[in-house]
């Protein structure tokens, strides 16, 4: 309990972003692409997790984990804003690449 309180006092500003994706493969691909870039500032902490959107999906195991959850903690609101802005830019690139180049997307377009 002391570690949680220490983290809260050192990094009092936090934000959790939950991004639902169509399937587990895309969610884990986004996770792997985004976690490569570490936070440059020692005043910001970021954690990623793949979650299930509902309790029914939890029974599917890893395949049910289609929500990319990103939690930011920072020392100030300004540091949090700057870090999240950078993350959103990277996220936009990752999602754009998925939309343009993902194999399943190409397969769906060729079937139309």
From TrEMBL:
Question: What is the annotated signal peptide range for this record?
Answer: none
One Pfam family named in its UniProt record: Pcc1
InterPro entries attached here? CTAG/Pcc1
- What family, per the record? Belongs to the CTAG/PCC1 family.
Name of the protein in its database record: Transcription factor Pcc1-domain-containing protein
Native organism: Aspergillus cavernicola
Q: Taxonomic lineage per UniProt?
A: Eukaryota, Fungi, Dikarya, Ascomycota, Pezizomycotina
């Amino acid at each position: 309990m002391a570690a949680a309180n220490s983290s809260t006092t050192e990094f009092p500003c936090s934000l959790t972003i939950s991004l639902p994706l169509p399937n587990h493969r895309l969610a884990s691909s986004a996770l792997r692409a985004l976690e490569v870039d570490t936070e440059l500032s020692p005043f910001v902490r970021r954690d990623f997790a793949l979650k299930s959107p509902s309790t029914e999906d939890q029974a599917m195991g890893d395949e049910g984990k289609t929500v990319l959850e990103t939690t930011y903690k920072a020392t100030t609101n300004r540091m949090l804003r700057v870090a999240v802005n950078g993350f959103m830019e990277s996220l936009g690139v990752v999602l754009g690449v998925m939309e343009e180049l993902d194999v399943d997307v190409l397969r769906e377009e060729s079937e139309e």
